Amino acid sequence: MNPQDLSTKQPNTWCPGCWNFFILEAVKRVISELVNEKKFFKKDFSIVTGVGCHGKIFDYLDLNGFYGLHGRVLPVALGIKLANPKMKVIGFGGDGDTYSEGMAHFIHAFRYNADITMIVHDNQSFSLTTGQATPTSQKGFKTNVNPYGEFNEPFNPVKIALSAGASFIARCNPSDIEHTKSVIKKAIQHKGFSYIEMMQKCVTFNLEMNNFDKLMYKIPDNANYNKALKLVEEWDYNSKKGKIPVGILYQTKKPCLYEKWKQSKQ
Ligand code: SF4
Hints:
By secondary structure, the protein is of the alpha/beta class. It has a single domain, classed as Rossmann fold (3-Layer(aba) Sandwich). The protein contains nine helices and eight strands.
């Protein structure tokens, strides 16, 4: 299988230069590689998307799945997994989608530790609706509905994930497609809930955040909790402050949902 075998005939309506293109390409490469290595069949994958620019990835990937309820990617993904535990379920959400409407699901997903991968396209903006502030927007972000600038500090989602008991947390620079591919591949093969924070540049809204390329640096895979505590705090989601570590920020072994849930063994 070639990555392009996962393409569809849908016209792509992302803005030229949007970093969603990198994420799409990385996902195609991972899935085709896993199929070629005979680890999975194409029919084993099921994708779920929310609502936002990220959600259009559903139209551009020739895979089964469910397209969209705003903020509800994780409950749908969990439902698919419970109905058919053999499915490899991959969720795609935006930062508004996941960290605003979907925050409760996000936190509990780490507690459940179901065998699902969640990829969050974080452009620090509600871009589909022309750029309003999300929970990860930098302080001072000016929008049409907030002309004096966002007055709240941003959430740090990777820090929340670690506090919530995550067994796999990664952050990626999608423009480094090969590195992103290798992280997604490890996430899909992780036993439990794997979460990837994609630093997805929006080239149309929240342009202030488009300086983060030079702040990002790659780290080796990390399994040390104390080191993870430092890594997740290294960047505060405000522009121009601190370095941004990318790679596997933390991975550990924890019982996944099916091992904890007695009914599943009956
Ligand atoms: Fe990408 Fe931003 Fe355009 Fe949406 S608005 S497609 S996130 S560049």
